[in-house]
Design goal:
- By secondary structure, the protein is α/β, with parallel strands linked by helices.
- It folds into 3 domains: 3-145, Rossmann fold (3-Layer(aba) Sandwich), CATH 3.40.50.2300; 160-322, 2-Layer Sandwich (Alpha-Beta Plaits), CATH 3.30.70; 352-389.
- The chain has 17 helices and 13 strands.
- The strands form 3 sheets. It has a 6-stranded mixed β-sheet with strand order 7-8-6-11-12-13, with helices on both faces.
- It is elongated, with a radius of gyration of 28 Å.
- The N and C termini lie far apart (64 Å).
């Protein structure tokens, strides 16, 4: 076989501490595949990181330094898509149902015994190799389509490229409005949401269950944001929400409602109840005084990481962790009609309802003037009574709407 033809063959990584086993597998595959050999999981992992040509992995289970299960876990938790999506075949010295089930749960594509016949081994490896090649081609097509479309065809959310483009447009608009001489200040807020303990979720329930959880969260986000908001998936466990014309408090209020809804969510898979929580990092263009989209999203990512490091299930803003008391305190301050209107646009209706007595009290002089001029029958007595008698009502923390 010429070197040119050999280099065109797909490359398989064989990881086994037995030289004889590696030699046996190589003998069966060398006419159809390029082969790379490593003696344990740690060496195999290093090979995967530095060698982008590897397209399939065959690994033993029992090995020094890092066993096959550990190698499989690293592969499936890798942030590199070329590594994360590699087909992995686990090979064992004997048929063991427990080992087989564990391997599949960790994300193995196939499980074979070392006594398998050459013909069957080759057929199964070739089948996985062809499937992987087709998946790569589809992914390349999807990436090409996504580069030209604002919507990711897989998630149904905005693409990362569109999120950045749209955010740049909104930032430019905010700067223009900020300097229009009318005192108006347009704000942009970003929320980055991460699924807590995602790696543990993969380890306990498998990659496929983790993907179902991710899909559920993406649907919740897509259906709960405003039309002018943009949602994009940044990583398997991470989403970004861009909210134009929304201040820090409004974004934090939405993050808290989302957090509470996820806490109350119970998913069932094969009669097993799965609960998750999320951590959100929030950044605002005016509060954080940032000029670029990358800075805004970067701050939100950092704050989400801070919340995750502190145990998760938190909302973190510029001053640290944010709770309901923060939102309530801000809304109890001197009322601003502009602020209330922004909250309505942001979907924070509950927060505005809590301040209706103060809103009415603020607007009452204007309403009285309107009534004196146009006599339209405004119920001033009722409004005045509402403003005076309902002002003592307090926030109800039991509200769980999102």
């Amino acid at each position: 076989m010429s070197d040119e033809v050999k280099e065109a063959l797909p490359k398989v990584l064989i990881v086994d501490d037995s030289r004889m086993v590696r030699a046996s597998i190589v003998r069966h595959l060398r006419d159809r595949f390029q082969v790379r050999e490593e003696v344990d999981g740690e060496a195999g992992w290093e090979a995967l990181v530095i060698d982008p040509e590897i397209q399939l992995v065959i690994t033993d289970i029992g090995m020094p330094r890092l066993d096959g299960y550990g190698l499989l876990e690293r592969i499936r938790s890798s942030k590199l898509s070329r590594v994360h999506d590699l087909p992995v075949v686990v090979i064992s010295g004997e048929e063991d149902r427990e080992s087989r089930e564990k391997a599949y749960k960790l994300g193995a594509n196939d499980f074979i015994t070392k006594g398998i016949g050459a013909t069957e081994l080759l057929a199964r490896i070739e089948s996985l190799s062809r499937l992987a090649q087709t998946s790569r081609e589809l992914e390349q097509s999807r990436a090409a389509l996504a580069a030209q479309s604002p919507v990711d065809p897989t998630t149904g959310l905005a693409t990362g490229a569109y999120l950045n483009w749209h955010a740049e447009q909104e930032m430019a608009l905010a700067k223009r409005r900020g300097g229009d001489g009318r005192g108006a200040k347009t704000e942009i807020s970003t929320m980055v949401v991460e699924i807590d303990h995602y790696d543990q979720l993969v380890q306990w329930h498998g990659q496929h269950v983790a993907q179902l959880v991710t899909r559920k969260l993406s649907k919740i986000l897509a259906t709960k944001v405003r039309k002018e908001d943009t949602v994009a998936q940044l990583a398997p466990d991470q989403f970004a929400v861009l909210s134009p014309s929304t201040d820090l408090v409004g974004c934090c209020a939405f993050a808290l409602r989302l957090q509470r809804a996820i806490e109350n969510l119970v998913m069932t898979y094969r009669d097993e109840r799965i609960r998750i929580s999320v951590t959100a990092g929030v950044a605002c263009s005016s509060v954080d005084d940032v000029q670029t989209v990358s800075q805004l999203i970067g701050l939100a990512v950092q704050r989400a990481e801070q919340g995750r490091a502190a145990g998760g299930n938190k909302v973190v803003a510029d001053q640290g962790e944010v709770g309901r008391e923060f939102v309530e305190r801000v809304f109890r301050q001197a009322v601003s009609i502009d602020h209330a209107l922004l909250q309505l646009k942001a979907g924070a209706t509950d927060e505005v309802i809590e301040r209706l007595p103060e809103v009415v009290a603020t607007l009452l002089p204007l309403l009285e003037l309107l009534e004196s001029r146009i006599h339209c029958g405004l119920p001033l007595d009722v409004l005045g009574q509402h403003a005076s008698t309902a002002a003592a009502e307090t926030y109800d923390p039991r509200r769980t709407s999102i």
